[in-house]
Amino acid sequence: MNSAVAIYLTPQEQTVLQKNVRSRKTSIRLIERSKIILLAADGLSNIEIAEQLDISAHKAGRWRNRYAEFGFSGIEKELPRGGNQGGKKTADQTRLRSKIIQATTQTKPQGATHWSTRTLAKALGTTHSFVNRVWQESGLKPHLTKGFKVSNDPKFEEKLVDVVGLYLSPPENAAVFCVDEKSSIQALDRTQPGLPMKKGRAGTMTHDYKRHGTSTLFAALDVANGKVIGECKLRHRHQEFLSFLKIVEKQTPKELELHLIVDNYSTHKHENVRKWLARNKRVMLHFIPTSSSWLNLVERFFGLLTQKQLKRGVFTSVGELEKAIRQFIDQHNQAPEPFVWTKSVDQILEKIGRAKVALRNV
């Protein structure tokens, strides 16, 4: 189902619509349409608007779209029968849509890095709601960027083949774990309590906070079954990493080889770690290429932990933070689901190749 087009009102637009609703001289039809737009601007869906005004969701959506495209004139005039807006106007709209897409993707406003609906609408002589509608229909989000980095590791392909091989064709009589540490997790306490979520309003949380210290989570994700071994520690030196390796080794059946996928952090290559590995032949480390954290599946688990437990959490001490982390891991392990790797080495190398070509052409 397509999401309803968003409505953003200027103070002047909101004043006019509210005046329409209050005025005894306004027609019943325009009062209803003004109410639809005001509720849409408050973030209500077409279904919610329909429930409040005792109309159909289709009707709410029709006038919402009309306002987004034509502004006040869209709700003041009746819809032509059959919805035909006339050939000339349709052609004008098509040309304007093309201009909006071209300007959004190929130009920048003076003194800024990207367009907003209002700055682009002003530049092209249209409404910001119409610009927003075109962006939604075209999947354009100028305010968002995605981070990326192409690895320059000279042994990229060799390490890629090694790690992807463990995911797609793991050795027999072996356990494969993705291991990493999530460092400097802050125990944050908000300065004021937030308001709970209710219908028509998201929950609130203050932007400022009090710090109560940090903790580091060492985690090992079992690739086969999705279970996680986790330990919280105050620091993340080689001593803590080695201590965690011993925990993982003890919890793995002795008859199995132990393959651990890790990144290139210096503590993972410390001399004491190498000596311990030399004495424990069944434990082998496999290093991912530099700048390739996406290749370590435990990062997916860290993302879930952040989103579901840490981002909105309120912690008055490090102990309270670590207790919440342990509870999340315990809950996860009650019904674990493995993260299934699907991309082959050839598919990844092809995508990396396209990225390098694109970077050279920038």
Description:
The chain is an alpha/beta fold. It folds into two domains: 11-138, no CATH class; 156-354, Ribonuclease H-like superfamily/Ribonuclease H (Nucleotidyltransferase, domain 5, 2-Layer Sandwich). Helix content is 48%, strand content 13%. It has a five-stranded mixed beta sheet. A hairpin with a 5-residue loop joins β2 (209-222) and β3 (228-233). α2 (28-41) packs across α4, α3 (46-53) packs across α4 (57-70) and α4 (57-70) crosses α8. The longest helix is centred in the N-terminal third of the chain and has 20 residues, at 87-106. The protein is elongated, with a radius of gyration of 28 Å. The two termini are 37 Å apart.
Brief account:
This protein has 362 residues and is α/β, with parallel strands linked by helices. The chain folds into two domains: 11-138, no CATH class; 156-354, Ribonuclease H-like superfamily/Ribonuclease H (Nucleotidyltransferase, domain 5, 2-Layer Sandwich).
